[in-house]
Write a structure and sequence with these properties.
The complex is a heterodimer of chains A (494) and B (308). Chain A is α+β, with helices and mostly antiparallel strands and 494 residues long. Chain A has two domains: 222 residues, D-Maltodextrin-Binding Protein, domain 2; 221 residues, Dipeptide-binding Protein, domain 3. Chain A is built from 16 helices and 17 strands. Chain A has a six-stranded mixed sheet with strand order 11-15-10-14-12-13, with helices on both faces. Chain A has a four-stranded antiparallel sheet with strand order 3-4-6-5, covered by helices on one side. In chain A, strand 12, helix 11 and strand 13 form a beta-alpha-beta unit. The longest helix of chain A is centred in the last third of the chain and has 18 residues. The model of chain A has no long low-confidence stretch (mean pLDDT 91). Chain B is an all-alpha fold. Chain B has a domain of 180 residues: MetI-like fold (Orthogonal Bundle). The two termini of chain B are 14 Å apart. The model of chain B has no long low-confidence stretch (mean pLDDT 88). Helices cover 77% and strands 0% of the residues of chain B. Classes of the chains: A alpha+beta (494), B mainly alpha (308). Chains A and B meet through helix 3, helix 6 and helix 12 of A and helix 2, helix 4, helix 6, helix 10 and helix 11 of B.
């Protein structure tokens, strides 16, 4: 499981203690019908529903959760986002222990067949949100034991979610059909759902226009060159999404180690020129690093300052009046000749032109293939690089966390103990008002120190005919549980 | 026969050399299979994954593991589709590529040979020149241009054929045309040039002097000579078509090998790359052996040469 598309399928098959509300994308009871939270807000005790069964009629118990979570934290299984479990007491130590070392198990356990308890290291206001992710869902221990590596490829995989897997054909289609054993089966809307893993935007649009698919579900599947034409159609839907396109500055190399140089480069960017001329899909020029609509973030409408005068002044103060003696620097991006990544090159050219026009400095462009680019970015082998970030959950912390000094996603070399302290204190508190204040301070510090320059916020984009498809509600997480989507077309065909 | 057996036996060391090159080259490429826009919380996960795939060991030990698995017919576990073995993926993708490739091959030969005969036979007339011109156009238009045009006209404006997938023979029409037209142009040029050359040769002149009719002259004497270059071209052509095409598969959403080859390189899916390269190499060598054997049947001179 790697991306959002995969998560949509897994979400159909396996349910967790909580599930996602289709309208608000907030956590609502799933396999657990209720829960209690201890006074210190660290211990959650979940009560499972009565009579839960897997699609193969075996009972679903709290022990399945215990085993599933232990399996995710078993390093030998190489579960990529297991780090999201680290808020659980003892989880990180257990996950990273060396083989054979006596490490106590993480703090979660089945108290009995229908009661599951988990204790966190410290209170975490978005913990229930995390539990809606596939990582925390119950997986069928009995099937995994018989075939540890290939259980998902077995015929009739036991599932706990609203749908069963009919087939999984790589690069072709995934078909799921209604699971009659699902506890909330009566509210599952469609009998059969096909997911088509299409990577070519034109192919997706052709199929959609010919009525062979009902929904296009990804912003990357909208052909960028005709996006302005598509936007006028009534079946083109857009909404705010928790993703930001930004630049990383390598703060360990000259002259980008001088904060004023980074600030000047950021101030020289006219962000609206990028959204109006290149991306053209109604994206909002960045006003901050955290996008509009993310929880615990007071959003301001005014875009980040474009002030060439101030930019020149800062550059002069840094020792480069009118760009004089400024060494040639390099802007690094990953490229593709078509698809959404083809915009990276256009943005690079636009940035190069703006930096020349407003600051009189020469920036060389360097393009590389994705994996080479990533390896260089991780090794800080760049000066300025294209970047983007999609939040894992709806909380400002999901964005600000990555610039912690020791965070592996930092990739700028920027270290700031004050920033680290602020983020740490945001975790100590459950008072949302106080957390909000902390996040405002942390983001201000980040934008002032400028190890990054946010450019614009992504938009979520779907295409579907709202007179035929109902049950897709727009939310910043872009989560739309398939069980609630209703296709009147399919019903009519029946 | 001896020559063929010798060539089949030669295939084994050749394939081993090819896998060794593919194996070491993908490991030399920068960027690893487990890198992504989001890093893991710590290095432990990546290290565990690398250990799982033996990537933490020296290359020659890794290659030893690979050969050991290969001897059992096992191409290893994909690093991208982590529950699937390369064998699983190939057994899903190869049939689609074979169907598409073989149909395109037949189309390219039938259409190309017909066009070649017409353009040589009717040379100088309007119909002959038109066919020659079409052949040249077919060669020049790349599939990434032809495909969308065909979809636009025959799927969207005039909804005769489906836009995507390979679920029925009807679905195969547009992808087969898109993939095959370019090659049919090439075949038509080979045939036309071959026939023209034969028509100008001494033995044809002798036959004509003996009073052999123009149709018999073409079919019995000139055409076999005109087809010889097509036979030698059809080996690499068949291999090329059978191994799939990224452009056509991507455009028509066909889950074939071409897409997996390109994506596995982009994903640094080491096991997949080596597995697919091995299969491609096998197909190319095998098709060439088949064609060379056919060639010696068609042209006795070659058999005599190999004997002497």
């Amino acid at each position: 499981m790697t991306g959002q598309a995969d998560a949509r399928v897994v979400d159909c098959l396996f349910e967790g203690l909580v599930r996602t509300d289709p309208v608000t994308a907030t956590p609502i009871p799933g396999l657990a019908e209720s829960w209690t939270i201890s006074q210190d807000k660290r211990t959650y005790t979940f009560k499972l529903r009565n009579g839960l069964i897997w699609s193969d009629n075996k009972p679903i118990t709290a022990y399945d959760f215990e085993q599933s979570w232990l399996r995710a934290l078993d390093i030998r299984n190489g579960v990529r986002n297991a780090g999201l479990m680290y808020s659980i007491e003892g989880a990180e130590a257990f996950h990273t222990r060396s083989e054979g070392s006596p490490t106590p198990p993480p703090s979660f356990q089945a108290l009995d067949a229908s009661t599951f308890q988990v204790t966190l290291t410290r209170p975490q206001s978005f913990f229930l949100q995390l539990l809606t992710m596939p990582l925390f869902a119950a997986t069928p221990t009995h099937a995994i034991q018989t075939s540890p590596n290939r259980w998902l490829l077995q015929k009739s995989v036991p599932v706990s979610g609203p749908y069963e897997l009919v087939w999984w054909r790589l690069n072709d289609s995934v078909r799921v059909q209604r699971n009659p054993n699902y506890w909330d089966n009566e509210n599952t809307r469609n009998e059969i759902v096909d997911f088509l893993p299409i990577s070519n935007p034109s192919t997706a649009l052709n199929l959609y226009l010919m009525g062979q698919v009902d929904v296009i579900w990804d912003k990357d599947l909208i052909p960028t060159h005709i996006v302005d034409k598509l936007m006028d159609r009534p079946d083109f839907h857009q909404y705010d999404y928790l993703g930001t396109y930004f630049l990383r500055f390598n703060t360990t190399v000259y002259p980008l180690n001088i904060p004023k140089v980074r600030q000047a480069l950021s101030l020289a960017i006219d962000r609206s020129r990028i959204t109006e001329r290149i991306t053209r899909a109604n994206e909002k020029p960045a006003t901050s690093f955290i996008p509009q609509g993310v929880m615990n973030h007071p959003f301001e409408e005014s875009p980040l300052l474009h002030d060439p005068e101030l930019a020149r002044q800062l550059l002069a103060e840094a020792g480069f009046p009118d760009g004089k003696d400024f060494p040639q620097i390099e802007y690094y991006f990953n490229g593709a000749s078509s698809g959404p990544a083809s915009n990276h090159q256009k943005i690079a050219v636009e940035l190069q032109a703006m930096w020349k026009a407003y600051l009189n400095i020469d920036v060389r462009l360097k393009k590389n293939e994705w994996k080479v680019f990533l390896a260089d970015q991780e090794a800080l082998n760049y000066q300025i690089s294209r970047s983007s970030w999609i939040g894992d959950y709806n909380d400002a912390y999901s964005f600000l966390e990555i610039f912690n000094s020791h965070e592996s996603n930092n990739r700028t070399g920027w270290k700031n103990s004050e920033y680290d302290k602020l983020l740490h204190s945001s975790n100590e508190s459950l008072d949302q008002e106080e957390r909000r204040r902390i996040f405002v301070d942390a983001e201000k510090l980040l934008l002032k120190e400028c190890p990054i320059a946010p450019l614009y916020f992504y938009k979520g984009t779907h295409m579907f005919d709202a007179t035929k498809i109902s049950g897709i509600y727009f939310n910043i997480l872009d989560r739309h549980p398939v069980r609630s989507i209703r296709n009147t077309n399919q019903e009519r065909k029946k | 026969m001896k020559v063929i057996i010798k060539r089949i036996l030669m295939m084994i060391p050749l394939l081993i050399i090819i896998t060794f090159l593919a194996f070491t080259l993908v490991r030399l490429a920068p960027g690893g299979p487990f890198a992504g826009e989001k890093s893991d919380k710590n290095d432990t996960i990546r290290k565990a994954l690398e250990a799982h795939y033996h990537l933490d060991k020296p290359v020659w030990i890794q290659y030893g593991h690979f050969l050991k698995d290969l001897a059992q017919g096992n191409l290893g576990l994909s690093m991208k589709y982590r529950n699937h073995t390369v064998n699983d993926i190939v057994s899903q993708a190869l049939p689609a590529s074979l169907i598409l490739g073989f149909s395109s091959f037949i189309f390219a030969l039938v259409a190309g040979i017909t066009m070649g005969i017409i353009s040589a036979w009717r040379r100088g007339s309007i119909s002959g020149d038109l066919v020659t011109l079409s052949g040249l156009i077919f060669i020049c238009v790349p599939s990434m241009v032809l495909g969308p045009i065909l979809i636009l006209f025959f799927s969207i404006y005039l909804p005769v054929f489906p836009t995507s997938f390979l679920h029925s023979p009807w679905h195969a029409v547009l992808p087969v045309l898109t993939l095959g037209i370019h090659y049919s142009g090439k075949v038509s040029r080979l045939v036309a040039e071959g026939i023209q050359e034969a028509l100008g040769s001494d033995y044809i002149r002798t036959a004509r002097a003996k009073g052999v009719g123009p149709l018999t002259l073409l079919v019995r004497h000139a055409l076999p000579m005109g087809l010889l270059p097509v036979v030698s071209y059809s080996g690499p052509l068949l291999a090329d078509l059978l191994t799939g095409s990224f452009v056509v598969e991507n455009l028509f959403q066909i889950p074939g090998m071409g897409t997996f080859l390109i994506n596995s390189s982009l994903n640094r899916d080491h096991t997949m790359i080596v597995g697919i390269v091995l299969i491609y190499s096998f197909l190319i060598i095998f098709c060439n052996i088949v064609v060379d054997s056919l060639y010696s049947i068609l042209d006795p001179r070659i058999k005599n040469q190999s004997r002497s």
